[in-house]
Design brief:
The chain is of the alpha/beta class. It has a single domain, classed as Ribokinase (UDP-N-acetylmuramoyl-L-alanine:D-glutamate ligase), CATH 3.40.1190. It contains 13 helices and 9 strands. Bound molecules: ligand NPW and adenosine-5'-diphosphate.
């Protein structure tokens, strides 16, 4: 049986800065995302993280995605430095990234902080040294498990649990209902998103939201890595609620969804 996770639960997992906080104590999220083929995914992840609220978003990558990220978000820092959670793989093919990006990806995976493994980084989960949170869609999870996509879709919760146990990871399986499974058999589900959310790039934004939530809970995660699961479910709820606001019953763009994140969070915090 899964526990349904909604706005009330998500509200408890928003880190509110206090007077003594600075940008580093709030949390730095690092991105090794995007590629020559999919530079837009880099922009969407950084945009979503900044709109979720974080001390700093650090983006490391090749020239073109870096330029696009800076053009959209000049507050992004593109120099190396400390990071409390990584987002790796959105907008990348596992074996088709440039040398610099591959080296940055290796460094991120070797950093023992919580790491979101999305899209092209899913197959590197075994190499990640920090708490792992995988964010596959059903097609990607089928590939990871060596199953048919139809089989995964027929028992999405079971497939997420199996992958979480096999990979000692938190697995967030995307879909109309999003399942979050942990390696101990825990299962959460979130279903706040309208079907209009099925549009290219919304998954890249979800990875950014999740990275921001992990970075802003770095100390708590160090003490209890088990909270990665409710944080992942919180990302799915925020993403779904922001999508609902952006949609209002119709289509929307991924940047529209990102623009609704601050108001979504304000409303959760106001209760
Ligand atoms: N603006 C940008 O830069 C964007 C960049 N992006 C980046 O593109 C890269 C490729 O990602 P991708 O998900 O498009 O393809 P891929 O990994 O080949 O999928 C494998 C197979 O899975 C299936 N499948 C697909 N979606 C499914 C779903 N939701 N639920 C269930 N099944 C689904 C489908 O199977 P089929 O339908 O063919 O049977 C497909 O053939 C990745 O790095 C991503 O970050 C995108 O985020 C878009 C915006
Ligand atoms: N039918 C649906 N209803 C609600 N949300 C959906 C639906 N289909 C997909 N989504 C959501 O849209 C996002 C799509 O992510 P993903 O498949 O990774 O696409 P992309 O790689 O193009 O960003 C996920 O957050 C997923 O939960």
């Amino acid at each position: 049986m899964d526990a349904s996770f909604g706005p009330e639960q998500a509200a408890r997992w928003i880190a509110v800065p206090g007077p003594a906080d600075d940008k580093y104590s709030r949390g730095v999220v690092g991105f090794v995302t995007g590629s020559a083929r999919y530079p837009g995914a880099a922009v969407l992840g950084v945009e979503a993280a900044l709109r979720t609220g974080v001390g700093m978003a650090r983006y490391l990558g090749a020239g073109r995605p870096t330029r696009l990220v800076l053009q959209r978000r000049p507050e992004a820092v593109t120099a190396e430095g400390r990071v409390q959670a990584w987002v790796v793989g959105s907008g990348q093919d596992p074996d088709d990234v440039d040398e610099l990006t591959a080296a940055l990806r290796e460094r991120a995976l070797a950093d023992p902080v919580p790491t979101v493994l999305d899209a092209g980084a899913l197959s590197f989960a075994g190499r990640a040294t920090g708490t792992r949170v995988l964010t596959p869609h059903a097609g990607e999870l089928a590939r990871l498990l060596g199953r048919d996509r139809a089989e995964v879709e027929a028992d999405a919760a079971g497939a997420a649990l199996e992958a979480a146990s096999r990979l000692s990871a938190v697995v967030l399986l995307k879909g109309h209902t999003t399942y979050v499974a942990d390696a101990d058999g825990g299962l959460l589900s979130a279903a706040s998103a309208p079907a209009w959310t099925a549009t290219a790039g919304t998954g890249d934004a979800l990875a950014g939201i999740l990275g921001a939530l992990l970075a802003t809970h770095a100390l708590e995660l160090e003490a209890d890595p088990g909270i990665a699961a409710p944080l992942a479910a919180t990302a799915a709820v925020l993403h779904g609620l922001a999508a609902e606001r952006a949609s209002g019953g119709g289509p929307f763009t991924v940047l529209d969804l990102c623009a609704e994140l601050p108001a979504t969070i304000r409303s959760l915090l106001a209760g």
